[in-house]
């Protein structure tokens, strides 16, 4: 095979989320978000860590963007805090919050970095939670649309790439099924599917509005995609894979790409009495939006193994590893359908996430075949314990190895016909890892920050210089 490389206009990037990096949680008129309230509950996050300061990107964004430019980053994917822009979720815009994003985008553009904006990365204004239950009410659809419409109009000449929703499958599952994320509700299956339907409708309304304002702009959603493998060729396990895909993957991606739910999955949920209510107008809206999306956004970290789960088998409430103590993650599943055992052929991270570079190529090929859409890899990265030496070096060869293997598979996917526009690592700087605190590090830039505080000084890791070379060579430096 010839030396692999990406197309000339490929967007090498990195990513972040507002709550995880900005801090300044009550400064300059910002309203509270659901996460600002949720983390106050004891035991919800590692050592009760919060994003009140995070890594202080709000005050240090110029320093961070300058580092991005030094690396040669082509695109920076970041989210906007809805509550920083609209403290009450609706009504008057907070001019100071708007100025922050104006300045951030201007800084990116000054260095030739393409801004890629995520409208919603899990932090809904707390005011909307208190007013009507947030995503539980269809009222949220109009408020989200107004918020999105404002941003489209305001930044239509500056931002070309937009992501409507980040990891809808994760924030709704953790919010209404496992109680790990706000609003912290457990096993509310019927409400879970109805909440998802509201999110789909909000996404659809935003896509349609976007195309009226920016017909040449690019928009899609980012989905946390874990491609699945059947445990073996036992038909029971092969069927468990099909059911897993319909319920855990295609339930979301089919709506984004086709505007409809997978038929067999909907039938199954309807029999259980938990399927969402879908009107004819809803269906028309979803189909219309699906015809207008430009790409499938993929957040890829790991693959999943599927095995038949007997009726008296494991439930979906297995303990999740949020401490970095390897081997503490528990197998979960849906009784009578599937369970997800560990893959004996693959290594795992300290947080028990399967390391499967070829799974990224698998994901791209499956999306290409099933949806025939371009792909943006909006997240991919390794969370690990990094050590800062006395002379301020961070030797993260393990991260370099992880990313190199994944990028190589991505380049092979391009050779095999997948249309991939961008690759955004998670993340550029270290940041707050939601439930895992500050000990789980993802960045190219080390931030002196722990659960108890720190100087917040930035230090370039070995992977920073490595990715700089990858970008400069358009991937050819990877062997």
Tell me the name of the CATH class.
Alpha Beta
How much strand?
5-15%
Q: Which spans of ≥5 residues are poorly predicted at pLDDT below 50?
A: none
CATH topology heading = TIM Barrel
The ordered H/E elements are EHHHEHHEHHEHHEEHHHEEEEHEHEEEH
What's the rounded overall pLDDT mean?
97
The CATH homologous superfamily corresponds to Glycosidases
Count of β-strands? 14
Distance between the first and last residues' Cα: 12 Å
Keyphrases for this structure?
13% strand, 15 helices, GH_1_N_CS, 8-stranded parallel β-barrel, 479 residues, TIM Barrel, two-stranded parallel ribbon, beta-glucosidase activity, alpha/beta
Concise overview:
This protein is 40% helix and 13% strand.
